[in-house]
Amino acid sequence: MTLRADIEVKRDGFALDVDLTVDAGETVAVLGPNGAGKTTLLRALAGLIPIHGRVELDGDVLDDSQAGKHVPTEDRRVGLVFQDHVLFPHLTVLENVGFGLKRDAHRIAREWLDRSGLGDKAGAMPRELSGGQAQRIALLRTLVTEPRLLLLDEPLSALDVSVRAEVRRELSRQLAGFKGIRILVTHDPLEAIALADRLVVLEQGGVVQDGPPTEVTARPRSRFVADLAGVNLLRGVGRGDHIELDGGETMAAPESGEGRVFAVIHPRAVALYLSRPEGTPRNVWRARAEDLDLRGERVRVRLSGRVPLVAEVTPSAVRDLHLGPGADVWVAVKATEISVYPG
């Protein structure tokens, strides 16, 4: 089973243009900043909004704008799970799970509930459930209809942090047992990496990266992905052993090649000093600390200057350097700590 979608949507000044292929058994997480088009893509795949292009699922054409074909949402065998886990408030949990079934609804719903460890909630009303339980019931209600394509729109974002990890584990287990195609929209990188085999990054209505999580985060191609991976991303022109950065500075980096390149620097590779470091390191700049963010046992320092960077240091280094917003420091980055790839 394969999903092939070539979708264009234009509405309210926004344009979505996505070409996507997903195979059965694959979980794809769609990430991107607000307004990138993530939910619009899901709604287009579900048949909820008109598109220009073509959508084919398991050999069946669901949309073809040239041929004037559009299969209604209810006939697509597409399952939708939204962040607000809307359950029918007047139906019991058992009745909610079996709602989309035409035969043996109670028996099949009971089997799904028992397998998921929620059998004791069969007679409960939605108002008696916790947020995590309600989201798990909403997922079961969708899975029990055996859709070919499962679409999840921010399924965990409405949950408290205290229950999110538990529901994420349950969601991961359910997705592993689902034989169709799975597409998950999320803004949470941890959620995406924990649940997905592949990341598709949308920005301004287009795909900027597509690949396994390790590959996407190792070679970010946009500021959004670099922030997701927690690294510094610079762009410029490679000149063999150095890069002419877009901001006007020159940065030494071996094997920079020729032409447009990206350069990635991990925050831990950014060294900070009170005075200019001794020796002859080539990548040395003045900078100013703008803000500090304590993360576990490390402190991330956002620096402004000729080469804006984020450094990651220990709390003791913060004390020794008298770091605080507005503090002036020297920055050094070893050329061998810079990862360069074509841009």
Strand order of the largest sheet: 7-8-9-3-10-11
Largest sheet: 6 strands, mixed
SSE class: alpha+beta
Number of strands: 19
At the first level of CATH, what is the class of the largest domain? Answer: Alpha Beta
Number of helices: 9
How many discrete domains?
A: 2
On the 0 to 100 scale, the average pLDDT is 91
Helical fraction: 10-25%
In angstroms, what is the radius of gyration? 25 Å
The CATH homologous superfamily of the largest domain is named P-loop containing nucleotide triphosphate hydrolases
Order of helices and strands: EEEHEEEEHHHEHEHEEHHEEEEEEHEE
Per DSSP, what share of the residues sits in E-state strands of 2 or more residues? 35-45%
N-to-C CA distance: 34 Å
Counting copies of identical and different chains, the oligomeric state is single chain
- The low-confidence runs, each spanning 5 or more residues with pLDDT under 50, are none
CATH architecture group name of the largest domain:
3-Layer(aba) Sandwich
Shape: elongated
Q: Tell me the CATH topology of the largest domain.
A: Rossmann fold
Explained architecture:
This protein is α+β, with helices and mostly antiparallel strands and 343 residues long. The chain folds into 2 domains: 2-87 and 129-227, 3-Layer(aba) Sandwich (Rossmann fold); 230-342, RNA polymerase II/Efflux pump adaptor protein, barrel-sandwich hybrid domain (OB fold (Dihydrolipoamide Acetyltransferase, E2P), Beta Barrel). The chain has helices spanning 38-45, 93-97, 105-115, 131-143, 161-177, 189-195, 213-218, 223-229, 315-320; strands at 2-11, 14-23, 27-31, 52-57, 60-64, 69-70, 78-81, 149-153, 181-185, 198-203, 206-211, 232-245, 250-265, 271-273, 284-295, 298-305, 309-313, 328-332, 338-342. Helix 4 packs parallel to helix 5 (161-177). The model has no long low-confidence stretch (mean pLDDT 91).
